[in-house]
Amino acid sequence: MSHRHHGHPTGPANEGRDASQAQTFPFEAMHLAVGCCMQAQPPAQISTERFYVRLIGYVNDMSLMVTTPVTSQDVRLQLIEGDALVMRVFVNQCAYGFACDVLRVCKLPFNYLHLSFPREVKGTVVRKAPRVKSKIIATVRHPNVGADWPGVISNVSATGALLDARHGMADKGDLLELKFKLVLHNVETHLSVQAAVRNVFTDASIERTSSDLAHFGVEFLNLQPHDQMVLHGMVYQQMIEQPQSMV
Fold this sequence. Notes:
Pnp Oxidase, Chain A; Thrombin, subunit H; 2 domains; 6-stranded antiparallel β-barrel; 14 strands
């Protein structure tokens, strides 16, 4: 057993929220499915990044099995037995987190980890997706038109965004495809998501700069688990690091 274990990283109940808002849930409340995407936070002395892993399976009250975290350089994270992790997952508008330890690092028949079964799961119901200011360059495609337009995502949540783009590009109810990239914990991720236009409007700030632009309030549709996790992670990271950016 390793002796570099210095306690768990920042606890799951403190991810940008007051700990009093978090509730304790049984493990079964998360309804974790094989293959679901989870976020793993290792001790700071190992890495300051957070990593996305897949759940392979679990044995109740014994162990969770997950894929081994891989760095942005596609290198296996050097974890050893006894290292402490904080795991986070977003399921059905709930943010869950729990602490665990690495029980076994396995390399055959593939790289995966045995983690200690969580003794306590903390969770917060996200009744309204928090939204933060942003300046994310996006490419917008209207499938019915077959043309691409540039746009800027001026604020974003895990469920939707406010997009500044060409006036007349789309109408309320139209479906769009948005392509953009996010940087989360120094890892660049490219997303391509479907979005429905829920509102179209202009305001004084846009009218002063260009009458050719409009605001498009869009809702993300059919998000893949990995994309949803990245969006949640980016929003919560910004809430922690730049609380003044909350809308």
